[in-house]
Structures are given as C-alpha cells and as structure tokens.
Hints:
Elements: E1 5-8, H1 12-23, E2 29-34, E3 45-50, E4 53-59, E5 69-73, H2 77-89, E6 93-100, E7 108-114, E8 120-126
Parallel strand pairs: 1-4, 5-8
Antiparallel strand pairs: 2-3, 3-4, 6-7, 7-8
Amino acid sequence: MIDHIGFPVSDISSSRAFYERALSPLGISLLMEITEEMTGGHGVHLGFGRDGKPFFWIGTGRPAASGTHVAFAARDHSAVDAFHKAALEAGGRDNGAPGPRPIYHPDYYGAFILDPDGNNIEAVCHGEGGA
C-alpha cells in the first residue's frame, strides 16, 4: 500500500489552483503547505488529502515532472464526471472523457486529464457503488 506520492511542478501557483479545483469533487483538498524556509531552501511543497492526512504532494525545488500517472479513487461515476469537468475548467487538457474502461475490468469507470505539466491525472470508480 502506498502512503503518499509527490512530484515536482514547474509553477506552484498554477498547479495549486489546478489541483484545488480538480480534486475538490473527490473530497480532496489542500491540507498542508511547506515553505521554502521550512525546507531549508529545497522548494515549496503542498500536501493534498482528506481526513487530515495529506497523501498527494506537489512541489518545487527540482525540474518539473512530466508523464507521471496518478489515479484518485472516486466514490461513484458522478464524482468521476465532476472531477473531469472541474479539471477542464481549471485548465487541464482532456486525456480521456469519463466512461467505462472494460479493458481493465467490467466495472472500471474513469476519466483522464493532463495537468499543467503534462502529467496524466485520473479519477476512477470500480463500479457505480464506489472506489
């Protein structure tokens, strides 16, 4: 089981705005901000999560990542749809509209967005009932 994941971004302000909007329909919000001073000059880091636990981190201090894939669990199909809509409105680029992906399994329902740095961000539900 993975506890958390993180990757560098090229513009922390635009990435923050993107992820705040895109992840909101999934119940994920910004929980922690680590300043440049706090890291001793090793970048700014933002932790997104829920229930007081950040599990998705973005930050500066290294060259931006591109081509990373992260899939967030959604409670149902409507949350996947809302993620896709919010992410597009936040400036993401469509990389796969919401819908079934039976190639993975019969109950797989997902949507894919490219974030400001070109990372493939997904929301997925494994059956209408939940993630």
